[in-house]
Amino acid sequence: MLILLAAAFLAVQDPGSELDCTNASNTLEINDCATKDVATEQARLETYLAASVGVLRDEAETPEGATTVVTELQASQKAWQAYADSACSTVYTRWQSGTIRNLMALSCRRRLTQDRSHSLWADYLVSLGGEEPVLPEPLFTP
User: Fold this and answer.
1) Which residues contact residue 66 at a Cβ distance below 8 angstroms, ignoring those fewer than 6 apart?
2) How far apart are CA 11 and CA 90, in angstroms?
3) Within 10 A of 106 (CB to CB), how many other CB atoms are there?
4) What DSSP letter does each residue of 1-57 carry, written as one string?
5) Core-most of 71, 92, 104, 106, by most CB within 10 Å?
6) Which residues have CB under 8 Å from 28's CB, separation 6+?
7) What is the pTM (predicted TM-score) of this model?
8) Per-domain residue ranges of the chain
9) Which fold has domain 27-125?
């Protein structure tokens, strides 16, 4: 019996198997899918941040101005990161007595990361002159 339980546990944990997140059926699968969603949003955020840095450098009138504005953006990103860490830690703490705690904290991180990507897009990647944005508007996923 113990061997069957261990085999079942390993089958769920098999890193070689592809998880179908549309049919996640237990806490581990749901959390794994939420972790993948956060990683996807983080990758998108990094793309929008890099594009924002590029726009700010291109638009700066002097090299010193470029350095200043990029440094300010990097500082705001660091402050946003600290805020997101704190906010989602609070969500985790709120739900700490339940198995839903990880999902709730991951959902917080995904939502805040989506918000940050959209803010970068709106603040730095959309032209006031009517040209096409540098990157498409990041769409929110439920």
Assistant:
1) 56, 57, 60
2) 33
3) 22
4) -HHHHHHHHHHHH-TTSPP-GGG--SHHHHHHHHHHHHHHHHHHHHHHHHHHHHHHH
5) 106
6) 12, 13
7) 0.83
8) 27-125
9) Substrate Binding Domain Of Dnak; Chain:A; Domain 2 (1.20.1270)
